[in-house]
Amino acid sequence: MGKTFHICTIAGIPLKVHWTFGLTLLFVAYVVHLHNLTTAASIGFSLLVLVMFICVILHEFGHAMAARRYNIKTLDIIISPIGGLARLQDIPQEPIKELVIALAGPAVNVIIATIIGCYLHFVLGTELIPSGDNLELLGYSIDFLKFVFTINIMLFVFNLIPAFPMDGGRVMRALLSMKLERVLATRVAMWLARLISFAFVAIALNTHNITLGLIGLFVYIMSGKEYAYVKMIKRASSTVSEVLQSQFTKLKTTDSYQSVIEAYQKGNEKNFLVYDESENLVGSIPEVFIKDAVKTNHYPESIIDLMSTKVAIIAPTSILRKVANMMSHEGIAICAVQEGDELIGVLDRYAVERFMKK
């Protein structure tokens, strides 16, 4: 995400701004200069930009509060020049939960628009939409409210475009997931998003609208990333039995280190387990140790002299995601996989990485 700055914490959720948010000030200054706005209109436009981001923040808190209903923590809310992002600790797999969370943000914009719309129509007896796009109108309070009303309607409509990373993409995926397997539903939603991105780019080329073209490119890239992420999550939910290597080299503390080098160079194995004469797991030899020995051309006489004592024995039914996190946290390159007292294979860090990238 890049550098962010903590602004405050609301309802236990940190609110942060991305460092690029400072570009918004340049944008405001540019627009004021370009349109040669009066003082009143300049203040009105600056306030409008501020209010727009407040509406975006409230939109993101809508997602966060809906997620909290399902005991899903929001890590933080980050605001940038292109919008907001509520970073949830987890994305619910259940379609109904994802649907509620996805719709909660746009619902906030509907509520804001409804309140302002009712005030404009029933109290002031005026139109809801500004009479034009002249920014000088922002110097008048009633027209300012009309612009805020319009912005919230636009935020609602834009976010419900059925394309990732907009809320509409998640709504589409949730609806598809009610009938289809989640990865397949995401794939269908991804291709729908890409069709929309192609349409955006085509329209942009015909109308010379650079912004629309950039949005189309952004949608194309992010929809692919969403699909890749969902595939990875599914693979991470697999069990160790789907990834373990049943054929492996089992080293003994009595073996020479030269035998380690030979096993490393002749096969596809990168890391090795070491057992003592009583068949007890006593250590491992990670690839980094082997590479260092080869580079320096210095091989110890005994395996014990150059091995890691960090070991782990796991069950074939263990969840891959939890094991991978443990290996990363503990600095373990290879685990022994046992079923009861029987060693049935090994789980190598590289095998996990290859499996995740498929």
Task: Describe the overall structure.
The structure is a single chain. This protein has helices at 23-34, 39-69, 95-123, 141-159, 167-177, 182-207, 210-236, 257-266, 287-296, 320-330, 349-357, and strands at 4-10, 13-18, 74-80, 83-88, 250-252, 272-275, 281-285, 313-314, 334-339, 342-348. It has 358 residues and is an alpha/beta fold. It folds into three domains: 4-160, no CATH class; 173-236; 241-357, CBS-domain, CATH 3.10.580.10. The strands form three sheets. A four-stranded mixed beta sheet has the order 1-2-3-4, with helices on one face. Strand 6 and strand 7 form a beta hairpin. Helix 2 (39-69) runs parallel beside helix 4, helix 3 crosses helix 5 and helix 6 (182-207) packs antiparallel against helix 7. The relative contact order is 0.07.
How far apart are the termini?
A: 25 Å
Structural class: alpha/beta
For the residues shown, what is the average pLDDT? 87
- Describe the oligomeric state of these chains in a short phrase: single chain
